[in-house]
Specification:
Radius of gyration: 20 Å
Helix content: 55-70%
Number of helices: 3
Distance between the termini: 43 Å
Length: 76
């Protein structure tokens, strides 16, 4: 089974998304937009606290996956 990628369709979908997003940015008051962005960022930080890996473990995992040597100081 061969999957075909329609570049023009993909391009049109991306342009439509950008246009919808730009319209929303123009229509939503700054106070609402700022609060939504703050809520999103807060959610990212809250989720990061619940992440099972430490920063050094996460970086080590990626080094191994990419066959990169550990840094000499060990904390990445």
């Amino acid at each position: 089974m061969e999957l075909k990628f329609d570049r023009e369709k993909n391009r049109q979908e991306r342009l439509a998304f950008v246009r919808r997003h730009a319209l929303r940015v123009r229509e939503v008051p700054n106070e609402v937009w700022s609060r939504e962005q703050a809520d999103l960022i807060d959610a990212f930080f809250e989720n990061a606290e619940n992440f099972a890996l430490s920063r050094s473990e996460y970086l080590r995992m990626h080094r191994v996956a990419r066959h990169r040597p550990e840094p000499v100081h060990g904390d990445g």
